[in-house]
Write a structure and sequence with these properties.
The protein is mostly beta strands and about 650 residues long. The protein has five helices and 39 strands.
Length: about 650
């Protein structure tokens, strides 16, 4: 039939149908040789808008009490106490006062009234130049609170997160409450202040531990919390793990079980953020139910280690691998379990904080140093070998012994793309920066001052507060840095400080309160006090194939350890594999951990990419590259062998060893 006749016959409805088919063809990667069951990475959202331009940021240091000349009793002569360290906390309503935790030192002994300025305490700091009634820009909230008002409290008030009522603050594993007064009210005196411990896992007979909470975060709904429980190996074959949980805070004025038997907050209706499906435990792969010889990629439940909540409280933020050995943050819906990747740079990020309107993320990242590119810099490699703890084996890249290397980066909702890798908010290139000290290494952008967890947004979305810590002389300078690092020039040589980033071009927004989310997490596992710690499931041993979204495939061999509780070896061969139709992967890789999850991981890699990018990732042979998954915990990075990535002509090698 002539072409013109065909055009004449096709109706408008047919055109629409063909257009829809074309869209679905691209969406699902339905090209010749592509997967009939594409990975969820194929379900990409529409192309992200163009990257934002760098915005004006003014950075300044917040005022804190003086530093004592020593920690000896009586060394501090200041009327409001002296501190040895400070940790950032969140903003109070009004966005002009932040919480913090001060660690006081050098106080005189009782009965001197200044003796109350000792240990770790919850404090407030004015961010707008204002002052409290005593004339200082800071105020200690929990100093001098009677012991009877804080029974069972651990005395750790770090990572403070205010409730929007302005009366309560979740700090550490306690809730500090000054009701009926706001915590900034002069009537919020020590006698009017209460601190209540937070407990979970309290069994009906009271025998449960009631603790084991790490990284407790308050949901923006002010009703729910999330946290992690660390599971340490207790027997051969056990794995070091962190399991995330979600639950509801409930005030218990008259507890009858557990400890203490004084007023406290219990976490109830608890859900473990894990599942019997291996794909719903941060590894993303499952056996294709229609063809047991194939694997499918399913980007859901990217929790890994729980970090925070989204601005609307409907998603949790955790870490996972969308690409090989590349740990990034994901926002995972509490309802559906679907995960949205928040950042994608090969550098390690930890943790991330969502803006109140959910359109921006501040992530603490080491992307500026390229310390992870030797492992994670090759694009287009699916996270197959990451079903072993490969990310943990690379985690030494964000530390040098006790020194953290993070800096704060501002990233829009659509994440890293093209040449956009966020904006370092303390780069001091788009606005003024100021610090209390003026000596060498004291500037706001100094690489010797590293950002600490966590960062916090003001409710109006215009300010961000974060903490920093200064490097130990043994952990900086050559061979880790180009130049030697001088001692801290903060008052008294203090090695911690608080910084405020003001996004000066943004207009304050006034969002409605976040409504309480459901207690139910359908994809999680309900937890009951006394339940045993879960064992993460894994894919069965066997030989599988994984089809590329657009072309090629990977053949995968999985070997279980002798206990059957995990995998010990993963081997992969790629042939023209591509998930984007632009970069194509060929070669082989393997990872094994000698049969125990906490054992060193050995990699053997011969990978090559062509197309939009060209490059290789290789290991020294015959021994390969071996690193411990516990490097970040032990403060030692002593790998055996080498791994090298060459991407578009640039060579990336592993960090300098340390112990």
């Amino acid at each position: 039939m002539p072409t013109g006749s065909v055009r004449h016959v096709i109706t408008q409805q047919c055109r629409l149908a063909i257009a829809l088919l074309a869209v679905l063809t691209v969406w699902w990667g339905a090209t010749p040789g592509a997967s009939a069951n594409p990975p969820a990475s194929a379900l990409r959202p529409p192309a992200a808008p163009s990257a934002p331009k760098p915005e004006p940021v003014a950075v300044s240091e917040l005022p804190v009490p003086p530093t004592p000349p020593s920690s000896s009793t009586g060394a501090c002569t200041a009327a409001t106490g002296c501190i040895s360290s400070v940790t950032a906390g969140g903003f109070l309503p009004g966005s002009r006062t932040v919480t913090a935790s001060f660690t006081y030192a050098g106080a005189p002994a009782a009965p001197d009234p200044r003796s109350v300025y000792t240990g770790n305490q919850l404090a407030l700091i004015k961010t707008d130049g204002g002052r409290f009634p005593d004339g200082n820009p800071w105020k200690c909230v929990t100093c001098a609170v009677p012991a009877a008002n804080q029974a069972g409290v651990a005395g750790d008030f770090r990572y403070a997160q205010p409730f929007r009522d302005g009366r309560r603050v979740l700090a550490g594993t306690s809730v500090v409450d000054c009701s009926p007064y706001r915590i900034t009210d002069p009537r919020c005196t020590p006698a009017a202040t209460r601190a209540y411990p937070v407990r979970w896992n309290v069994t009906p007979d009271g025998s449960g531990p009631g603790g084991g909470v790490m990284g407790l975060k308050l949901n923006p709904d002010n009703v729910h919390v999330g946290w992690n429980k660390v599971i340490r190996p207790t027997a051969p074959g056990d794995a070091f793990d962190e399991i995330a949980y979600f639950g509801r805070l409930r005030f218990n004025p008259h507890p009858t079980t557990g400890t203490p038997l004084t007023p406290r907050y219990d976490i109830v209706k608890v859900t473990g953020l894990y599942n019997s499906d291996p794909a719903l435990n941060g590894h993303f792969f499952r056996v294709d139910p229609r063809d047991p010889s194939k694997l499918r990629y399913d980007q859901r439940a990217a929790v890994g280690e729980f970090k925070n909540f989204s601005g609307d409280g409907r998603s949790l933020i955790g870490i996972g691998n969308a690409r090989s050995v590349n740990l990034d943050h994901f926002a995972t819906s509490l309802t559906t379990g679907k995960s949205r990747r928040l950042d994608a740079d090969p550098g390690y990020s930890d943790p991330a904080t969502s803006s109140p309107d959910d359109n921006w993320t501040v992530t603490m990242d080491v992307r500026y140093r390229n310390r992870f590119h030797f492992m994670a810099g090759l694009p287009g490699v699916p996270p197959l070998v990451d079903m072993l703890p490969t990310g943990a084996a690379a985690s030494a890249g964000y530390n040098i012994r006790t020194r953290r290397l993070f800096q704060p980066f501002l990233i829009d909702r659509h994440g890293d793309r093209g040449k956009y890798h966020g904006q370092q908010i303390n780069a001091c290139t788009t606005g003024p920066c100021s610090t209390s000290a003026t000596g060498p290494g004291s500037t706001a952008d100094s690489p010797f001052w590293a950002a600490r967890a966590d960062s916090y947004w003001s409710a109006d979305g215009t300010r961000i507060v974060y903490g920093q810590t200064y490097s130990s002389p043994t952990d900086c300078g050559p061979p880790f840095d180009p130049a030697a690092c001088p001692p801290s020039s903060e008052p008294g040589g203090r090695t911690s400080r608080l910084m405020l980033a003001h996004l000066t071009s943004r207009k304050p927004h006034h969002l409605p309160p976040v409504h309480p989310v459901s207690d139910s997490v359908p994809w999680g596992t309900p937890y009951h006090p006394g339940d045993p710690d879960p064992k993460r499931p894994h894919l069965p041993a066997g030989h599988y194939t994984l089809d590329g979204t657009f072309a090629g495939r990977a053949t995968v061999d999985l070997v279980e350890n002798t206990t059957g509780i995990g995998l010990t070896r993963i081997s992969v061969a790629y042939k023209n594999y591509s998930d984007d139709g632009k970069t194509f992967l060929n070669g082989t890789e393997s990872a094994d951990n000698a049969g125990t999850p906490s054992s060193p991981v050995t990699f053997h890699t011969r990978l090559r990419v062509t197309g939009q990018h060209t490059g290789t990732r290789t290991t020294s042979e015959p021994g390969g590259y071996t690193a411990s998954p516990l490097s970040s915990l032990t403060g030692s990075y002593q790998p055996a062998g080498t791994m090298t990535t060459i991407l578009d002509g640039r060579v990336y090698t592993q960090p300098v060893s340390y112990s």
